[in-house]
């Protein structure tokens, strides 16, 4: 395989396989005063994705190059790696020349959702089962796009996704966590879904159990959260079904704050009283 090319300016050629087929990967990470948060976890997930897709992993200095342009505040860096151009139809080139692009943008988190919790709904769309792609952040995210198109009400912060067999997986852009019978749990992601870097870091510092569970787990839960490495952790206060009917309510309290504090310490976000 050819070595990855260095970072290129914005813009995709029409024959780029990432644009044509979703043949690539991306990472979205929080940058605080030029320092990337959960950098090791992002690099590890990107490496797993490269291995799964057979794309050469770029050297770390190429991936870190955009940080030289970071400002003093809070920003989000998106790294996009494709297989590049070439091949015939779906057949990939024998020696891919990956293409790395990036975008750095100022960011302000929605702190109101930290404090007050969020309203979420179940999605009609069910995620397909594909263990070969489970856990990685590949570019083909049409399932997430279709799920997110199910509602337009800005009061609904997220949608929860089940797989084709009715197991809880994630939200459209965040991982899912809950406490049930005093135990912290999160869906197992061996069949589909994205293994978030905040989720990975929390599994290293908390007793967080991966489980196969359906909606009944949330009905038994004492507290529920959504989280990712950019937004931090949102307590879930209200859950609705696909028709907007209420299913459960969780008053935001001390249990929510304890888990949130663990996550926010990893991202430099405030721990709330």
Automatic annotation (TrEMBL):
Entry EC no(s): 4.1.3.38
Swiss-Prot/TrEMBL cofactor(s): pyridoxal 5'-phosphate
Catalytic reaction(s) noted: 4-amino-4-deoxychorismate = 4-aminobenzoate + pyruvate + H(+)
Domain of life: Bacteria
Example GO BP: folic acid biosynthetic process
EC category name: lyase
Protein name: Aminodeoxychorismate lyase
GO CC annotations, alphabetized: cytosol
Gene Ontology MF, one: pyridoxal phosphate binding
Family, as annotated: Belongs to the class-IV pyridoxal-phosphate-dependent aminotransferase family.
Organism encoding this protein: Halomonas shengliensis
Lineage: Bacteria, Pseudomonadati, Pseudomonadota, Gammaproteobacteria, Oceanospirillales
Subunit-structure text: Homodimer.
Entry keywords, A to Z: Folate biosynthesis, Lyase, Pyridoxal phosphate
Signal peptide span: none
Entry keyword Zinc: no
């Amino acid at each position: 395989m050819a070595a990855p090319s260095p970072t290129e300016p914005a813009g995709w050629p029409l024959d780029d396989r990432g644009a044509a087929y979703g043949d690539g990967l991306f990472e979205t990470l929080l940058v605080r005063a030029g320092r990337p948060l959960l950098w090791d976890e992002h690099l590890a997930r990107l490496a797993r994705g490269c291995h799964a897709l057979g794309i050469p992993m770029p050297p770390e200095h190429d991936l870190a190059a955009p940080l030289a342009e970071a400002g003093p505040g809070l920003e989000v860096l998106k790294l996009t790696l494709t297989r590049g151009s070439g091949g015939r139809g779906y057949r990939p080139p024998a020696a891919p020349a990956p293409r790395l692009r990036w975008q750095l943008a100022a960011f302000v988190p929605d702190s109101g959702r930290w404090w007050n919790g969020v309203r979420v709904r179940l999605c009609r769309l069910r995620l397909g089962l594909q263990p070969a792609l489970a856990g990685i952040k590949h570019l083909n995210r049409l399932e997430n796009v279709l799920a997110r198109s199910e509602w337009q009400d800005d009061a609904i912060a997220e949608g929860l996704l089940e797989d084709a067999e009715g197991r809880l997986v994630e939200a459209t852009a965040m991982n899912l966590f809950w406490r049930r019978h005093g135990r912290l749990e999160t869906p197992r992601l061996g069949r589909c879904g994205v293994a978030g870097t905040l989720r990975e870091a929390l599994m290293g510092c908390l007793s967080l159990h991966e489980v196969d569970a359906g909606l009944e787990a949330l009905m038994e839960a004492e507290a529920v959260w959504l989280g990712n490495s950019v937004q931090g952790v949102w307590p879930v206060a209200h859950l609705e079904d696909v028709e907007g009917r209420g299913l459960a309510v969780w008053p935001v309290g001390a249990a929510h704050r304890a888990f949130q504090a663990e996550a926010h310490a990893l991202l430099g976000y405030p721990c709330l009283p």
